Amino acid sequence: MLATQYFAKDLFKGKTVFVTGGGSGINLGVAKNFAALGANVAICGRTQEKLDAAAAELRSFGTEVCVASADVRDSAALEAAFEKSRAEVGAMDVLVCGAAGNFLAPAEKLSPNGFKAVVDIDLLGSFNATHSAFEQLNETKGSILYISAGMAYMPHAFQVHVGAAKAGIDMMMKNIALEWGRFGIRANSIVPGPIEGTEGLKRLSDPAEKARLISAVPLRRTGTADDIGQVAAFLASPLASYMTGCVVVCDGGQNLPGSALFNTTAEQVLRAQQG
Ligand code: COA
Ligand code: NAP
Prior knowledge:
seven-stranded parallel β-sheet, alpha/beta, NAD(P)-bd_dom_sf, binds coenzyme A, oxidoreductase, Short-chain dehydrogenase, NADP, 9 helices
């Protein structure tokens, strides 16, 4: 369900949103929610066909769309992408740092270059985007949204690289919020839970175990890209104009259980006590 169900359809009319990694998955869902609310949208990524298909979807909302091919690890390429989007769809009011890489790897088998690849895309890539966007955001008094993950604050097996990268992103977000508040620029993170139909979920979970995965989510369902798009629309809107430096978790409560083993055992003990 798009955010237009509850927000005014022209909430972001005349505004521009740039989404790194916006060619697919959650980030494309975020871009679509902004487009549906009237924003002009720019996206970047490394795969031209993916970006072109995403742009066609975004244009169906009737807004201006800019596509730029850029690897977020390459700050010069990002700067060029931001200049292109400024020329085509205007100075950005919202930057969404969503580009990321992930795979399961036991720490003892993960090569230093494998660790570096993820930290470079997620953390350094988010800094590159933030740094290159400063002038435009300063001009628009805009805001930044970082797409984080539960791995930033709960350890997950075989995710040492992702945990380090996303924890870094959330701390960077707080530093940026602290430093750039004086320019009127806000910064916040969104932590998605398991989002249906995404590359991330495909890489980290076994479809045959979906029922078990859902049973560990307090709200008993996987999330949708629109769930995240709606939170993004709220955080970038005037409704959240006094919110900065926040990590907003949108995961159906997935990261609350902590020690799943403790919870399962506690449930068994409680059942036994109750007869
Ligand atoms: N397990 C362990 N190591 C892996 C790996 C895996 N599944 N996939 C890649 N690596 C290692 C490589 O072996 C290499 O290390 P090495 O040089 O020591 O061998 C290093 O990571 C870089 O690999 P490379 O393929 O050159 O990286 P890339 O920059 O082309 O791609 C990835 C980045 C690896 C993150 C790739 O999976 C990707 O592009 N992902 C984007 C999409 C995605 O992950 N979506 C989900 C987001 S949640
Ligand atoms: P996805 O579709 O693979 O999204 C990642 C996007 O980033 C892709 O479009 C990818 O396109 C782009 N990208 C990757 N490396 C890049 C680089 N070096 N430069 C520029 N773009 C790059 O996966 P997703 O699952 O929807 O994930 C989106 C975001 O949500 C990520 O930040 C992820 O960590 C976060 N998240 C996902 C979940 C989940 O359940 N899926 C849960 C928590 C957090 P190219 O490969 O073509 O460049």
